[in-house]
Amino acid sequence: MSHRGRTGRPGTNDEVDVTRPAQPLIGRTELVAGLEQTLRTGRSRFVLLSGPPGIGSSTLAEHLARRHDGPVLRATAAEWEAEQPGSLLAQLFPGLPTSNPLATAAELVARLAPSTILVLHDAQFGDLDSLRTLASAQRHHPDAALRVVATSTTGDRRASAEVLDLLPRIATDAPRIPPLDAAQISELAAAQGVALHPSMAERLRRHTLGRPRPAAQLLAELPRATWSQFEPTLPAPASVQALVRESLASCTPSARGFAEATAVLGTDAPVRNVMSLAELDGGPLPLMDEATAAGLVALAPRGLTYVSPPDPMVRAAVLTVLGPARRAALQRRAAELVDDPVRSLRLLVAASPVPDAEVAGRLEALAGERAAGGAWGTAATLLSDASRLTDDPQHQQALITRAVDALIGAGDVFRATALIPEVESIRETPLRDAVLGYLAMVRGRAAEAGSRLRRAWDIVNTDREPETAALICQRYVLDALCRYDGRDLVLWADRAIELAGPNTPTAVEAEAIRGLGLAATGSVTLGQRHYDELTARLRHGAQWQRATMARGWINLITDRVDDARVDFESSMPTAYLGGSARISLWARAWLARVQFLTGEWNEALATVREAMDMQERTGILVTGPLLLWTAAAVHALRGEFAETDEVLLGSATGAGDYQIMRVPSQLARAHVAEARADSDGVLRALYPLTRPSPSTSTDEPGHWPWQDMYAHALVLLGRLDEADEFLVPHEKLAAKRGHTSMRARLTAARGRLHGARGDVGAASAAFDEALELISGLPLRYDQARINFSYGQTLRRLRRRARADVVLSAARDGFAAMGATTYVERCDRELKAGGVHRTRPEPTADALTPQEESVTRLVARGLSNKEVAAELFLSSKTVQYHLTRVYAKLGIRSRAELAARNNPGLPQQD
Q: Which superkingdom does the taxonomy of this entry point to (predicted)?
């Protein structure tokens, strides 16, 4: 038996069609799985699914009902039946006696078929007798396994206070139904055939508060073109519009005026301003009571002196009901009441259906002020507004172009892209080419960016357009940074500062990067001094954020790791006025490197994940490989090679990409190859960095730590003379710069080279020096890595006791970081050294520790060359041990050896 009734209504809960087949619920997978398990426990359950209108509680309840194997009975409460005793249960069990809840409960249980689920929609309107009966049935008849799934809309003032108090008390389970996030809103849109870029998905999420029903309604009601526009004005869904119109009509004229004024003023409007705009006299409290009871106004968290619209959809609906003329009149008056100049001007924009040169000029001037403080996001909105109110077509085009430039500066590439068709359609100007080059740059398109910037510089007249010329120079500064060309960076920064003049936004941005160019050309001390002066001058704001991030970069380069951490963490937030997501991404990428080097690998992966989410939201791709470099290293060192391969795929770059993308991608592959004991792979990954490139600064110590990895790989492959020749210039440069960590890494590589040549004293001296250098720095990964190389070298030189000590220290360091690949290697080395090995009585066919290590690696499928690299032996020595193993075990082939060590494998020659 089933009673469908009305399964939802606009403004209360979701409208559901129980005849439709069940569909997967977006963003509810874990919640559904947990509730299904709850309903299968065999005990009585009262599951209360409550939430604001449109959150999806009724849809969720029906999803559970459809997936239930047993009978389902449905009922829907109605406001006008709430005072009728037993009206809700009468829908489920016609004729059920209602003498008292206890007797009715007994009769209900007698009629209940096994495994039945009762679905109650709009339970906030349920009658008390029905709900009390269900509670009594649970308490007095636990063996009946009564299962109830009830939905309730929170904040509905029409519901009885007694019912609202009773529902949570009788519920055995009341899970929170979370709103959808931006990614889930995108998924919802895709299911309706609408593609939303992340910025638009976030805009729709904010407008609907993440509630699926109104989001789905707007996606269906609005033209598809809406979703590709720049900052479209989103209305309320038709269902919300109808309810708001009804609520406004039911209010007294004064309360309606109060609600309309609140909608015009927006969030956190002072009550005095609302009363003034609505031209109301007397005390506001009765009006506030009436407007809030009607669901048109909400008290702001700041207290009784501030009010807000309940949500953006209600605000949009009220503004629509006002009509264009009345709304514009109120907006013009409201612009005089608000203190925030941005808010005031945007009210005037909303009230201006035709061009207004005076307002456009004020918008442009304010945009310049905001840009001076680095508030690029706000500046972009003001410039876009100014373009709409401008008559002059050429000036309008310039404003749109500048708005795109500001959006890219703020790191909002997707919103910038929405304006690109307008920019590309206008006549070519130096500004247009510079902006399009800037966009190509943050997308990582080096060739396009270079071409656009060259064209912009070729056609600009520096005498007539010094500001545009300075902007082009500043974009070249960023381009030089991405090419990692320190000389070019400083050159273009100085040009930008000269053309723009001191303390202008363009000059400050150039200054914020110039110090990195100094560092990349070896003038690190000058770079540090530059940033100390600049951050002291700026002190706060988005420009300070840029300079602080760059100072952190230099601190990391110069081994001031703790200072670098503070700077990166300080420059990560984007809550500054217009704080840049682009700068935040750089800060997160380098913070992840700090966390990797100091052994905080869980934190490093968390930082990378957060940054990759931000990258997906913003469309800034140039930082991707830098972020994934750290992730690849951690996963590889932890032996998580499936994740490693996925990361390497995402970090792949090509010859046309920027150097700042290619280098970390190459380093990521080298890390992975080293973790797999693939020395050939290390050389292949790093070979491009060995090619002479006068225009880049990748050889400067501390910038990109690749040189020691390359040298170690050469030694492990027996290419000793090449390793010696390679190390010399890098050792000299590290000594000249006084770079501690790079000297330590290169000295360890030199120690390994001495060891490979059999010079025990020189090898020990080099490794001891390397450990002394690194001991004063919080670089736990490097310390463990140097100890491992030292121990491996000592073991080969038959200094087993000393090797045991050093390898144990390496093992402890790697184990603390979760570097399982190296923990296993340390264990193999320690076992092969045999110092702490319990030695059985030797027999003629017993394998030595070294033979056991060779056996295990060959059985895993490694070639002699790979085994040699792993155990730091020559290929001939590996073959010698392998021959002895075959003789002792009475086998003839690698396949037999593999089958013997892996019994599940078939044996074959």
A: Bacteria
pLDDT at 874: 66
Task: Please give the model's pTM, rounded to 2 decimal places.
Answer: 0.76
Residue 798: pLDDT band with limits 50, 70, 90? confident
Q: Is 175 left (phi over 0), alpha (psi -120 to 50) or beta?
A: beta
Collapsing DSSP to helix, strand or coil, 12 comes out as coil
- Residue 130 burial by CB count (10 A; 0-12/13-18/19+): exposed, middle or buried? buried
- Reported as type and span, the H/E element at residue 188 is helix 182-191
- Residue 447 CA: distances (Å) to CA of 586, 690, 697, 709: 21, 22, 19, 30
Say whether 152 sits in a helix, a strand or coil: strand
Report how far residue 13's alpha carbon sits from residue 152's, in angstroms, rounded to the nearest whole number: 7
CB 739 within 8 A of CB 782: no
Q: Could you write out the DSSP letters of every residue in 114-126?
A: TT-EEEEESGGG-
Residue reference for tokens 């009475």: 890
Q: Which CATH class is domain 28-170?
A: alpha beta
What mean pLDDT is predicted for residues 41-51? 89
Q: Which pLDDT belongs to residue 11?
A: 38
Average pLDDT, the chain: 88
Q: Structurally, what CATH architecture does the domain formed by 849-901 represent? A: Orthogonal Bundle (1.10)
**Residue 334 CA: distances (Å) to CA of 269, 270, 274, 886:** 10, 12, 9, 91
Contact in structure between 581 and 614 (CB atoms under 8 Å): yes
Give the C-alpha separation, 45 to 23, whole Å. 24
DSSP H helices, 571-704, are: 581-597, 601-618, 624-637, 641-650, 659-675, 679-690
**What is the C-alpha to C-alpha distance for residues 47 and 192, in angstroms, rounded to an integer?**
30
**What CA–CA distance (Å, rounded) separates 553 from 570?**
13
For residue 377, what are the contacts with CB-CB under 8 A and spacing of at least 6?
406, 407, 410, 412, 578
Average pLDDT of span 595-615: 94
Angle formed by the axes of helices 894-901 and 849-859, nearest 10°: 100
Give yes or no for a contact between 832 and 849, defined as CB atoms under 8 angstroms apart. Answer: yes
Q: Domain residue spans in the chain?
A: 28-170, 185-357, 697-777, 786-836, 849-901
Q: Are 576 and 545 in contact (CB under 8 A)?
A: yes
DSSP string of 614-652, one letter each residue: HHHHH---TTHHHHHHHHHHHHHHTT-HHHHHHHHHHT-
pLDDT digits 0-9 by tens, 280-291: 998 999 999 999
When pLDDT is cut at 50, 70 and 90, the band that residue 268 belongs to is very high
The phi and psi torsions of 230 (rounded to 5 degrees) equal -90, 115
Mean pLDDT of 214-235: 92
Is the C-alpha dihedral spanning 784, 786, 787, 789 positive or negative? positive
Identify which of 622, 701, 694 has the alpha carbon closest to the alpha carbon of residue 656: 622
Give all strands (DSSP E) within 383-436, no chain letters. none
Tens digits of residue pLDDT in 345-403: 999 999 999 999 999 999 999 998 888 777 888 899 999 999 999 999 989 999 999 99
Helix 740-756 vs helix 720-737: angle between axes, to the nearest 10 degrees? Answer: 160
28-170 and 849-901 in the same fold: no
Question: Nearest to residue 327, comparing CAs of 319, 315, 335?
Answer: 319
At 846 the pLDDT is 66
Identify the H or E element spanning 726. Answer: helix 720-737
Please give the C-alpha separations between residue 60 and each of 9, 152, 172, 284, in angstroms, as whole numbers: 15, 12, 17, 41
CA–CA distance, 321 with 324 (Å, rounded to integer)? 9
Q: For residue 7, name the pLDDT band (cuts at 50, 70, 90).
A: very low
Residue 376 is predicted with a pLDDT of 82
Q: For 265, what's the count of Cα atoms within 13 Å in the CB-facing half-sphere?
A: 30
Contact present, 622 and 449 (Cβ < 8 Å): no
Cβ contact 42:17 at 8 Å? no
